[in-house]
Design brief:
It is built from 3 helices and 36 strands. The protein has 476 residues and is mainly beta. The strands form 9 sheets. Strands 1, 2, 34, 35 and 36 form a 5-stranded antiparallel β-sheet that branches. Strands 25, 26, 27, 28 and 29 form a 5-stranded antiparallel β-sheet that branches. A 4-stranded antiparallel β-sheet has the order 3-4-5-6, with no helix packed on it.
Length: 476
């Protein structure tokens, strides 16, 4: 009787957990290998999906129960357009795309209303097709107003344009030189803040032989002053293992966090934090902190050795704190090639998905860091994900921000019929693990890493299974 009562209590608890949210699933749509799609978001109570098919561009609209309510073809200036970005706002969405015409590269912007009717269109820029580039891309500001479109020539000349997607106007267009950098080796990241300032972040001499001169080299372009400003931040003889940057618009400073290494290039031995106001760079905060032996043991388990660090990790997210600190989420991942002649290295999404690979995406290491760089707390969120030959698209996690906590949502196993789990993490480091959803209920395989949060309590997730696409809406 005691065992029966305990079992009943456990089943009741599981029912309560899984029933704590509503799940709505759309009808399946057949997709081909060369089809592409992007979840636009939720506008005017409809979930919108952009579909790039072989012969047309479509916008699909779903109601709150994920029933398809309409489909509309849209026209772009070229059927061979490269979609750079789709940004939604409360009442509309904007598509930024590029195409080639007579030796020129044209970047276009088209704004649509909630019914996919064109509101406005504009040419963002026209440039000569200069052929080979070391780096090119685009970035959107945190408030989703500005988009930066940039390319960097092998000759170190930067061509950058910032476009205001709200007013559909060009804010600035500039070409300038960044000297004495190796774009393939030194380039780290580009950021744009909510005032349309742009930050190009490079790393110089990040190797043990030159650790004394190791530094971050930041080039800032401010359109109000029309000046490109150079800033050097010494790494104080440390060598970084991985690093990521974000712009903190609340506290008006550039922040970076990462992992550093002492002994071997294959392992990290601690974490660091950088906070810098570019206008007063001399007063920056830079703090390094080694891993505690207990934390290494928690992270590695039986693999742990007090003389070793933590390897096979990469930064997945930097979450800004209102006080100026950050929460750094680091994921353990590795993959192995089963294709002769292929190299094993850390996973990057750009890898050819048709190479025969084994993917391991494992624990999430969290570091909550104060604004002065001191560690607030750390934790290990345990998970084990293994897959083969799928470019790891079903691995890793979806991060949902809510006013009180973060949700790390992930597939418990990378297979058909799995449980979707979540970790709830508060600002003080309290964690709770729950079961969210059984994928077998609706015959779905969720691409959580590519999902989109559309409200504090709501996310839209794509499912791909047997060449069929479904959209899943989870509401907490």
């Amino acid at each position: 009787m005691r065992h029966t009562t305990a079992l009943f209590a456990f089943l009741l608890a599981m029912t309560t957990i899984i029933s704590a949210q509503e799940v709505f699933v759309s009808e399946s749509r057949s997709i081909r290998n060369d089809d592409a799609y992007s979840i636009i978001g939720k506008i005017d109570e409809h979930v919108l999906l952009f579909a790039d098919k072989a012969d047309k561009y479509e916008i699909l609209a779903y109601d709150e129960e994920m029933k398809e309510v309409w489909t509309k073809n849209i026209e772009l200036d070229s059927r061979r357009a490269k979609i750079l970005n789709i940004t939604e706002s409360e009442n509309d969405f904007t598509i930024i795309y590029q195409y080639n015409r007579r030796g020129k590269i044209l970047t276009q912007a088209v704004k649509f209303d909630a019914n996919a009717e064109v509101l406005n269109s504009d040419t963002v820029r026209v440039e000569t097709n200069r052929g080979f580039y070391s780096t090119r891309g685009e970035e959107v500001s945190e408030d989703k107003r500005y988009i930066l479109v940039y390319d960097i020539e092998m000759s170190e000349r930067v061509h950058a344009t910032v476009y205001d997607m709200q007013s559909m106007t060009t804010v600035w267009n500039k070409a300038f030189m960044i000297k004495d950098v190796d774009m393939d080796r030194d380039f780290i990241q580009v950021l744009i803040d909510n005032s349309a300032r742009v930050y190009f972040v490079f790393s110089k001499d990040n190797r043990r032989a030159k650790r004394e001169t190791n530094r971050f080299y930041i080039v800032t372009y401010d359109h109000e002053t029309a000046l490109a400003k150079e800033t050097d931040i010494s790494m104080q003889s440390y060598v970084w293992y991985d690093v990521a940057f974000k712009y903190d618009n609340i506290n008006d400073r550039l922040v970076g966090a990462g992992l550093y290494m002492d002994r071997r290039y294959t392992e990290s031995n601690g974490h660091f934090f950088l906070g810098v106001n570019i206008d007063n760079a001399e007063a920056h905060q830079l703090h390094f902190q080694p891993f505690e032996p207990k934390f290494i043991t928690r992270s590695l388990g039986k693999e742990a050795n007090r003389k070793r660090g933590i390897g096979e990790v990469s930064i997945r997210d930097l979450i800004l704190r209102q006080d100026g600190g950050v929460l750094m989420a680091v994921e353990r991942n590795r993959f192995y090639s089963r294709t002769p002649g292929s190299l094993n290295t850390l996973y990057t999404p750009q890898r050819d998905m048709f190479v025969r690979m084994d993917f391991h995406f494992e624990d999430i290491l969290l570091f909550a860091i104060h604004p002065d760089g001191q560690l607030h707390w750390n934790d290990v969120l345990q998970k084990r994900q293994f897959s083969q030959d799928d470019a790891a698209r079903f691995s890793s996690y979806l991060l949902m921000h809510t006013p009180r906590q973060l949700r790390f949502i992930y597939n418990d196993e990378i297979r058909y019929k799995t449980i979707i789990n979540e970790y709830l993490v508060t600002g003080t480091g309290n964690t709770e693990r729950n079961s969210v959803y059984n994928s077998d209920v609706h015959d779905v395989s969720l691409l959580l890493r590519e999902a989109k949060q559309v409200a504090a309590n709501e996310a839209i997730i794509a499912s791909e299974r047997r060449s069929n696409l479904k959209l899943v809406r989870i509401v907490y």
